[in-house]
Write a structure and sequence with these properties.
Elements (H helix, E strand, L loop, with lengths): L2 H7 L11 E6 L2 E7 L19 H20 L1 H4 L7 E10 L8 E12 L2 E9 L5 E11 L1
Antiparallel strand pairs: 1-2, 2-4, 3-6, 4-5, 5-6
């Protein structure tokens, strides 16, 4: 399954699709990136006169690339048979170190911790274009 096919199977659409491309994917993990549009809806109010990407959006980028894309890859045969897959995601202990501003490109690197009974847990890291660690944590998800 190609990265374009995986992205096409994501249950998201603009303005809530946060995956531009997957640069590598295997049974053990995934790497991908996303560039924040300068006019994204959430910058209007976060913060006045100083737009910064909300932490919840950074977490969502890590979840979409690091867990959902990898889950689709790992469950590709089952996903293709589902008309509308249901996804449940949880995150814990996400640590934030640097801000992300409008127009910035970020890269997510995700490593599979475990995958069993359709539950996937990953260690995820998000880096800016300067390869500085922006945030990291663990995200789990299930696809039915």
């Amino acid at each position: 399954m190609t990265s374009a096919e995986i992205i096409a199977l994501l249950p998201y659409q603009k303005p809530f699709l946060f995956v531009d491309e997957l640069t590598s994917i295997s049974e053990n993990g995934v790497t991908g990136n996303y560039t924040f549009e300068k006019a994204a809806f959430f910058y209007e109010g976060h913060f006045k006169g100083n737009p910064v990407t909300p932490g919840v959006i950074l977490t969502e980028v890590m979840a979409q690339i690091g867990v959902v894309c990898l889950g689709i890859f790992l469950l590709k045969d089952e996903i293709l048979q589902l008309s509308a897959p249901k996804i449940a995601l949880t995150s814990n202990q996400i640590d934030f170190f640097l801000p992300v501003f409008p127009g910035e490109k970020v890269t997510v690197i995700s490593e599979k911790e475990f995958f069993r009974f359709n539950k996937l847990k990953c260690k995820v890291q998000l880096f800016n274009a300067s390869k500085e660690l922006v945030c990291r944590g663990f995200i789990s998800g299930m696809i039915k």
